[in-house]
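Hi C.,

You asked whether I'd gotten around to modeling the 793-residue construct. I have! Everything is below, sequence then structure, no commentary in between.
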Amino acid sequence: MKKPKYYFKSKSKFLHDSSTSHVTGETKFIDDIESVKNELIVTIVTSEIAYGEIKTIDFKDALKIDGVESVITAKDIKKNLWGAINQDQPLLADTYVNYVGEPILIFATTNKEIITKVKKSIKIKIKELTPVLTIEQSIKRKDFFDKKTTLRSGDIKASKKNSKNIIKSSFRNGGQEHFYLESHAAIAYPEENGEIIIHSSSQHPTEVQHVVAKALGINFNKVVSTVKRMGGGFGGKESQASHIAALAALIAFKTKRVSRLVLDKDQDMEITGKRHPFKTDYEVGFDDKGKIDFLKANLYADGGSYLDLTPAILQRAMFHIDNAYFLENAEINGYMCKTNYAANTAFRGFGGPQGAAIIEHIIEEISQKLNIDALKVRKLNCYGKKSRNTTHYGQVIKKKLLPEVISKLQKNINYEKITKEINTYNKKSLKGEKSDIRGYALTPCKFGISFTSKFLNQGNALVNIHSDGTIQVSTGATEMGQGVNTKIQLVVCECFGLTPEKVKIMPTSTEKNHNTSATAASSGSDINSKAAELASLKIKERLRKLALFYFQKSKDFEKSFSEFKPSKTNSKLLEEIYFDSGNIYLNKKSKTKKISFNDLVSIAYFNRVSLGDYAFFKTPSIHFDPKTGKGNPFLYYTNGAAFSEVSIDKLTGELKVLKTNIVMDLGRPMIDGIDYGQVAGGFIQSLGWVTSEELVYSPKGKLSTHSPTTYKIPSIGDTPREFTIDFLENDLNIMNVRKSKAVGEPPFLLGLSVFCAIKNALYNLDCDSSTLKIPATSEEILKHIYPEHFNEH
């Protein structure tokens, strides 16, 4: 096999803030925090039944075991219900259990050795009831969380009458396990006066604070929620970390002892929700060139047993069903199915990948029906610049670079040449000269950036300059490996003309940053960097006035300084004050008059000039009316495109990704090294979703794939043999900090290029790929190569 080729480059001097400590092993996650004297270990006892009525909970024998310090059930909780949107999920099941793995009881011990013995001593009787374990069962029973939601554009009926070609079918995508390296974890520290401090692995410290306070029956101001970092999150710790933190806090509050709750990987996978599986029934009309006339789609999202974030995730799937294509006539209906699985939750892309997967599947189906190269169909339907540029929810796409992104990628790979070579290879394969068949696809992405719930688009920052010229910055952003701390650090450094070691981003804490939103929706860097910049600019303005005063009166400074007041100053002269490389200059051209940043800060301190400030930022110009289904829910869009070539063994169905080339439009990247990492990681995680990460459940709803031995995330051997990433830099995104664009979630959609390449390979093998689902595992591929050998049971 050819040695894999990975092409990355970075120009930035800014390194990920944890890069050194990760490599040296000094990085501390929750369970690395040293235990304290009399600390308790918290364990969860969960349901082994998917749906049933709790009759009795008997833990008398558990309390007799030496080392058991406390047992808590639902009856001991002040407020047992929690939820990100509707508070419908119990912290501990009370009357009914609704999925295998649902927490029923927690107990605290002084050592791990007795945990198994304690679990065996607890007797829980549950009357088993008939669960709902498929989307189809939910649809049949009309067991939905709420009524359907709809987005409409144009005239479906009229366009349907005139469509020359119509496809009516269904498409399915499976769920996905987050598989963060650090499982859910929390340590609760009881304080005096009934207060509590929570350290948790969470994307949303504020929600942790609120859920804990309500569970304990205390005010929010008695809870401090702190997050230094997470060992991965991917959305799985946006809402559901609050649950784990609250359970740890309950024990700490009751016993007045430090309590630690850390899930192992099996427990984590069994207890927590996944990416939402979807079933979509669709009808699409198109002309003989492949131009889409209309699309009608019914999206059924498997929400699991409780609501969690399902409404927002379904809404984004409906927003992103267009991906990069103009849908003049569309009717998109969304349904939230209730099933007896763990409540499904946020996952990188937040419904966007599920929506985009539908239209990319449809594009391939149109291409195959008409026997037209799929890229031609994509470019024909791609959004225009001056016309055909309004989404089905009414947002006009401005400053769009999708055509440029696609063209750059075509040029990078020499599309005509490479596809000709693949087609030549496949002709030999069909003659029996090759053991594999090749497939390819070039798919774009258009991902909207903002929370779709308007009120979440807010953040605040606190910037403090110390008398030695170093700075501490506190924001509501949480670091989960994505590099948000480093981007905030960059913004503050550039504001004051400092090097990275001068600026430190502090752990996120609700006592310093209040009512913050989750670090999610790819907006963590946008919102928090901007808030930090605004706070820095307030301080910088005062320092500019002080520097100008110093330059004007430096000869008799000590005497004149007592007269300094930051009052009205010539604005043109102020604008000339220039911060660079640890110094402040009178102006950018002349380097003769200067003072070091440290000296100016010292002067400011001794003369009572404020060196700290706070700022608030809210994302402008976004709105959406759910009643009309129209609005501008996104501040801007991040664009990209990927070309992937795959090989499928004709005998075994084994898949290899031979090549992936990516072009991303990230505006003006803030730190290209981090952005390259995000693009690569997002794509590979998506690669797992579309090819290998299959969630398997028993007939009674128990997760069978609940460990690294049974659940297959991509390994290095699964990544593309040749993998290149390129950026299309531009200065058009003036509405965002430093003209940058968000990068966390958009590249996830590009994994669909591999799925579409698999469909193309099967088509080249003269196999029907219309029912190919996500994930397209080797077994799933084999079923489509030899359908006669597989019977559905």
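If it helps when you're writing up: The radius of gyration is 28 Å.

Thanks,
B.
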